[in-house]
Amino acid sequence: MSISTPGGPERRPTVVSTGKKPAAGRPAAVAKPGGGKSAGAPRQTSGGKGPRKPITPVKVSQGRSWGPIALFVAVGVLAVSIIGYGAYAAFQGSKSWEQRAADIDGIVDFRDKDPKLVQGGQHQQGAIKYDVLPPVAGPHNPAWQNCMGDVYDAPIANEHAVHSLEHGTVWITYRPDLPADQVSKLRSKTQGVEKVMLSPFEGLDKPISLQAWGYQLKVDNADDSRIDEFIKTLRVNASVEGPNANCGQGITATGTAPRDNVPQQQQQPTQ
Amino acid sequence: MTAPATTDTPPVEPSVTGSGDRRPAGRYGLLALAAAVVVGLLLGYAGGLLTPTLTRPGDSSAEAGFARDMTTHHAQAVEMGLIAFDRGTDPEVRQIGGDIATGQQGEIGTMQTWLRSWGLDPTGDQPRMAWMPDGTGKIENGLMPGMATPEEMAKLRVAQGRELDVLFLQMMIKHHLGGIHMIQGILDAGGDDDVLAVAQIMKNTQQTDLTNLQNALKRLGG
Q1: Which of A68, A102, A113, B121 is the most buried (most CB within 10 A)?
Q2: Nearest Cα to B219, choosing from B90, B70, B103?
Q3: Closest partner residue to B15 among A18, A61, A79, by Cβ?
Q4: pTM of whole model > 0.90?
């Protein structure tokens, strides 16, 4: 790093006479070469011509070795790009399921709309009136509807279904007049998938309505890609009780009247 | 004489320029060193931050596929096991039903925790069993190997007494055989050490279960 440009020693005297005082921090490096030369005196006058001086440093800077600088710049650019990519990847990967749910076009988020409804559901016997239909949250029957990929061919009780939602189920409902080929597409999204269940629902304003705890999405067609998006984003994730909530041992019967305190063996098979 | 004069006026200019030709060397050297240290630290930090993201199993990895599909497979075993535990007649059937239900539910928790720690959803984009060679072809009506059909489950739910015991044993034997096949799939595919270790334990457990289930079935004359 030491500079051995021809102009260096000549100018050093000026450094000695002037620089010594202000830069008391590092006198040694400056003082040594300057001390040996007595050519400082004549230079001082020229040194007095302040305005000219700024030209010389440019020369010196040319003496700087560009190699290390280029290396540092290269490493810096590399570092910035790696860090930048990392930040980008982290941002993309860190999108929570809630954020991704909000990105689904047409989804209704009752967690946002009616936080009280979505807090959790107390158990309640008998018929329960739900303001949102199909229901998306709220009090519910102590027994849940079996939600082990069950396909129900007749309407089921809201009171049991809401309990299934609480356990992380995506409940797919369709208007009874939905064409059979559309229903079979919904069936294939359900069968064999625990925490998904399918049933017809009377009085829907759209052909298909999907429910998860606190969320609803209505679509016109079983081919709508938002159905898979809804399931991927909300199945289990929307559970109030986490991924270990049970979906077996539930009510497997259909019928819209809730069943209170029914031991499992008394249920009639409906599938 | 002249010195006082020069030191009086030039100090401002020469000291700036004078220090400009030697001190920059030291100053820039120091700056460069500091910059290098900072860049090095940032690189190390970014590397440490990125490495787990880049090396952990991705959305279409065999590990993620196994965790999701085996969760589903296990969930049905839990449902069957609890039916046997709740309503079985034979003490061993009830005991083994409860054992399978609690054991596999625990494993579901482990697998779901993997997915969460990998930043993945419990539901994948890939079809079922796509992580196994020839896997998707083994799906029937959405059911993975060994899984009971809705009709079989409905039958088990209403069965009573010895009929239920025998039915449960038969269904669970089939279920375990399918499960072991899938576990072998992840053991063959390899990957995350913890996944492989847990998969090996699952396989050992289900193989031991299988012997006991088969012996119990013989004993009950099923």
Answers
A1: B121
A2: B90
A3: A18
A4: no
Q: Could you report the per-residue pLDDT of A69-94, keeping only the tens digit for each?
A: 888 889 889 888 887 877 776 676 67
Chain B residues in contact with A7 (beta carbon < 8 A): 21
Residue range B35-58: average pLDDT?
A: 84
Residue with tokens 């030039």: B10
With tokens 């050519």, the residue in question is A39
Average pLDDT of chain B? 89
Q: Give percent of chain B with pLDDT exceeding 90.
A: 71
Contact B141 A61 (CB under 8 A): no
- Cα distances (Å, whole numbers) of residue A259 to A115, B97, B128, B164: 28, 26, 34, 24
Distance CA A59, CA A218 (A): 74
Give A244's contacts in chain B (Cβ within 8 Å).
105, 108-109, 112
Q: Min CA distance, B7 vs chain A (Å)?
A: 6
- Minimum distance, in Å, between the CA of residue B17 and any CA atom of chain A: 6
Phi, psi torsion values for A162, nearest 5 degrees: -65, -35
Helices (H) and strands (E) in chain B, counts: 7, 0
CA distance B71 to B81: 15
Could you report the predicted ipTM of this complex, rounded to two decimals? 0.81
Q: Output DSSP code: residue B131.
A: T
Model confidence at A39, pLDDT cuts 50, 70, 90, reads: very low
For residue B160, the 8-state DSSP code is: -
Contact between A139 and A117 under an 8 Å Cβ cutoff? The reply is no
Q: Kindly report the nearest CA distance between residue A244 and chain B, in angstroms.
A: 6
Contact A149 B142 (CB under 8 A): yes
Shortest CB distance from B109 goes to which of A7, A89, A244?
Answer: A244
Instruction: Give the list of residues 6+ apart from residue A150 with CB closer than 8 angstroms, or none.
Output: A190, A197, A198, A252, A271, B150
Q: Report yes or no: A214 and B93 within 8 Å, Cβ to Cβ.
A: no
Q: Which residue has the tokens 């490493």?
A: A75
What was the pLDDT predicted at B146? 97
pLDDT tens digit sequence for B116-136:
999 999 999 999 999 999 898
| Residue pLDDT, tens place only, B198-220 | 999 999 999 999 999 999 999 99
